[in-house]
């Protein structure tokens, strides 16, 4: 086996996603890590261009980087390394938060392409052992792999107690899928389930490592945001969730199926009970619906 074969085999078997492109950004190498993180096999992407309908990178503002701001393109043009946090479009439809690093490839002093290394941020993922524990005490949602309403209520009560004793503020965000009832009536049950899974995974991708994401009801999700006492920070985080969900879509042969969410978000207030908080975020979310949907309302 020659040196190149050894090199390629080593790249194939590392955990990070790695792919190579030429100067036209045509994909020439795609390792198993890239398959695991993106859901796309090497067979599906080799010979295609990174700006084709594959990863569709966006930033946390929803800007489409493949057409403007692509780290690989900048690396090829400028000959310098680039790194940033982005959100790729998984084959199953949801967004995945990844740290990307791009490096130029040289041959005889000339740039012949670039390589991208991407690592998924899995701080929000529930481990298999934790899932088993949650199942045992009925605090786990089987469809979405999120904590369920019972768990969220317990967590909120704990956060309220911490606020009263230690003045540690927190935020709560309620997301409701727009027009889900209509969608549910017009597609097969399996498609509705896939939409719920897509949205739940995209919400997880858009949150911080210590945030708690759970399914509140059929088409509603709640995110508990620890250590937040600033309304602008709350708004920025809620907007990021809205943008990432909006830019997610189930892929099929005819067209992509996407959804949006109406969002209500609030900070803990003095003398708040769990009923006060949940009533307030429902009212705020409803206001987002009345304002045209796919909106964030803070209060």
TrEMBL record:
Domain PAS: 3-48
Positions of the GGDEF domain: 168-299
Entry-linked InterPro entries: DGC-Regulatory_Protein (IPR052163), GGDEF_dom (IPR000160), Nucleotide_cyclase (IPR029787), PAS (IPR000014), PAS-like_dom_sf (IPR035965), Rev_trsase/Diguanyl_cyclase (IPR043128)
Superkingdom of origin organism: Bacteria
Pfam families assigned to the protein according to its UniProt record, in alphabetical order: GGDEF (PF00990), PAS_9 (PF13426)
Protein name per Swiss-Prot or TrEMBL: PAS domain S-box-containing protein/diguanylate cyclase (GGDEF) domain-containing protein
């Amino acid at each position: 086996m020659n040196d190149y074969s050894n090199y390629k085999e080593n790249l194939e078997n590392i955990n990070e996603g790695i792919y190579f492109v030429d100067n036209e950004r045509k994909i020439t190498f795609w390792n198993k890590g890239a398959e695991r993180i993106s859901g796309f096999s090497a067979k599906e992407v080799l010979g295609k261009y990174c700006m084709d309908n594959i990863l569709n990178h966006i930033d946390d503002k929803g800007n489409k980087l493949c057409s403007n701001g692509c780290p690989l393109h900048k690396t090829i043009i400028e000959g310098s390394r680039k790194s940033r946090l982005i959100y790729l479009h998984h084959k199953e439809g949801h967004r995945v938060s990844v740290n990307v690093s791009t490096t130029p490839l040289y041959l005889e002093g000339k740039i012949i392409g670039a390589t991208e290394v991407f690592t998924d941020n899995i701080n929000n993922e529930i481990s298999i052992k934790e899932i088993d524990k949650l199942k045992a005490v009925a605090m786990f949602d089987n469809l979405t792999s999120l904590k369920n309403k019972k768990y969220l209520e317990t967590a909120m009560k704990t956060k309220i107690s911490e606020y009263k004793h230690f003045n540690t503020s927190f935020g709560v965000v309620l997301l409701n899928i727009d027009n889900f009832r209509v969608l549910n009536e017009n597609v097969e049950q399996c498609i509705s389930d896939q939409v719920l899974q897509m949205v739940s995974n995209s919400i997880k991708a858009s949150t911080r490592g210590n945030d708690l994401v759970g399914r509140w009801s059929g088409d509603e999700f709640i995110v508990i945001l620890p250590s937040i006492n600033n309304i602008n920070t709350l708004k920025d985080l809620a907007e990021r969730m809205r943008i990432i969900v909006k830019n997610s879509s189930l892929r099929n042969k005819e067209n992509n199926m996407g959804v949006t969410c109406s969002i209500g978000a609030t900070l803990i207030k003095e003398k708040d009970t769990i009923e006060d908080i949940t009533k307030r975020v429902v009212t705020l979310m409803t206001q987002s619906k009345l304002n045209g949907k796919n909106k964030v309302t803070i209060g």
